[in-house]
Design brief:
Number of strands: 15
CATH architecture: 3-Layer(aba) Sandwich
Shape: globular
Strand content: 15-25%
CATH class: Alpha Beta
Bound molecules: NADP nicotinamide-adenine-dinucleotide phosphate
CATH superfamily: NAD(P)-binding Rossmann-like Domain
Number of helices: 10
Distance between the termini: 34 Å
Helix content: 25-40%
Number of domains: 1
Order of helices and strands: EHEEEEHEEHEEEHEEHEHEHHEHH
CATH topology: Rossmann fold
Radius of gyration: 19 Å
Length: 294
């Protein structure tokens, strides 16, 4: 049994992850900007504050906190918030574990497949590939650098470069299950690396329980889907009409601004590395969606 400090534990992934960790008899403490429960503790990144009680005897930190990438238009202020909420928060945790002499067994962090860039290409990106140069890649690079600083103190670091998380409780599917998104977007040939939320949370649990599972991993399902094939499968499972016309790029740009790039572009990502450690429950999109909408 380990004591785990979870940031972003009130979010989509964190909520299920907390249940799974507790089911495996781990103790979970959540850091939140607005603590609402007994095991929630306050932190305030801008003011360099973490409730000291949250860091007592912590074995692992799982860092999921971050402002929602697709929640608001990307103004300069919002872009800075997307970075700071992930990076300054990790820096603060690093500073605090040193201040309190916390002997961590591991730091486990989310990152995104956006590391490889918001570009459409036939390359199947592997973990050792170079990052892209666009804004999403910049977030991921700084996020991973912040996580990797823990390794300076010989703390094992695990980073999960995550694809689009599929869940019945919200996230991307909630947006996709609307008339605008039940049509192919742009050219429709952009890949959507996806993962069922159960598999993703099981990967985090594995990172706590298996000391050999550290380093950087692509956390996506093995089956490659384009935006067009994904939308068709979603329509089929939902028994909903999928518009035969593609939504033009300019319409998406009008609706969501610069962040349209994250739905208009997308590359394939390799699962070869993670498959050596992890058995997927949901390898195929149809099965994943059927479970979600059953
Ligand atoms: N969902 C996806 O498809 C997906 C894909 C790739 C990567 N990821 C990454 O995986 C992580 C978890 O994803 P999720 O979908 O569970 O996210 P989520 O539902 O948006 O939850 C993120 C949590 O982060 C905290 N947070 C939000 N804004 C913050 C800010 N400005 N400063 C500090 N903390 C803030 C919130 O906790 P409090 O309100 O309690 O403070 C929130 O519950 C995120 O870092 C996300 O970028 C997600």
């Amino acid at each position: 049994m380990a004591k785990i400090l979870l940031t972003g534990g009130t979010g989509l992934v964190g909520t299920l992850l907390e249940q799974k960790l507790k089911k495996n008899n781990h103790e979970v403490i959540i850091l939140s900007r607005n603590p609402k429960k007994k095991h929630h503790f306050k932190w305030d990144v801008k003011n360099n504050y973490v409730d000291p009680k949250a860091l007592e005897n912590t074995d692992f930190i799982i860092h999921l906190a971050g402002a929602g990438i697709a929640d608001k238009k990307w103004t300069n202020k919002r872009k800075q918030e997307l970075i700071d909420s992930r990076v300054l928060s990790a820096n603060l945790l690093y500073q605090k574990i040193k201040e309190y002499n916390t002997s961590l067994k591991g730091f486990i962090s989310s990152s995104g497949i956006g590391y490889y860039g918001a570009i459409t290409s036939e390359t199947i990106f592997k973990e050792e590939d170079q990052p892209a140069k666009d804004f999403i890649a910049k977030i991921c690079i700084e996020w991973e650098n912040a996580a990797n600083q823990f390794s300076k103190d010989n703390i094992p670091v695990t980073i999960l470069r995550t694809g689009v998380v599929l869940s019945k409780d919200g996230g991307a599917l909630k947006k996709m299950n609307t008339p605008l998104f039940l049509s192919a977007l742009g050219k429709g040939d952009q890949y959507i690396p996806w993962i069922h939320i159960e598999d993703l949370c099981d990967m985090y649990v594995k990172a706590v329980e298996d000391q050999s599972f550290n380093g950087i991993f692509n956390a996506v399902a093995p089956e490659h889907q384009t935006n067009s094939s994904f939308t068709k499968t979603l329509g089929k499972v939902l028994k909903k009409f999928v518009t035969p016309f593609n939504v033009p790029k300019f319409v998406l740009q009008l609706v969501v601004g610069e962040l349209a790039v994250i739905v208009l572009q997308g590359s394939r990502v390799s699962t070869e590395k993670i498959k050596k450690y992890f058995s997927f429950k949901y390898k195929e999109l149809t099965k994943a969606l059927e479970e979600i909408y059953q």
